[in-house]
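TA notes, week 10

Several of you asked for a full example with nothing omitted. So below is the full record: structure tokens for the whole chain, then the designed sequence directly under it. When grading your own attempts, check the secondary structure regions first.
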């Protein structure tokens, strides 16, 4: 499981499976990538909904955002997590 945190407060906002995490990264990394920090706002949530992203992902981010205009999230990947990423040369 990959843990998501509110970077500004350190509060844990939820956890995703590796599959859900990959899906989230596939949908936001090109537009909102800043190292391992991601700015989440209503536009990001709407984009994920439009792309029919996993409902759990959307709910975690929507709950974390609450009434704020935006939050910055970060993630923690435990060492034992295995990902199948294609490495670019």
């Amino acid at each position: 499981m990959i843990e998501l945190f509110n970077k500004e407060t350190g509060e844990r906002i939820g956890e995703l499976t590796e599959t859900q995490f990959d899906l989230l990264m596939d949908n936001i990394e090109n537009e909102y990538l800043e190292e391992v920090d991601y700015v989440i706002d209503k536009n990001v949530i709407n984009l994920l909904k439009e792309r029919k992203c996993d409902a759990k992902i959307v709910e975690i981010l929507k709950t974390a955002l609450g009434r704020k205009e935006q939050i910055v999230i970060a993630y923690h990947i435990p060492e034992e997590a295995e990902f199948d990423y294609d490495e670019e040369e």
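The chain has a mean pLDDT of 84. Use that as a sanity check on your answer.
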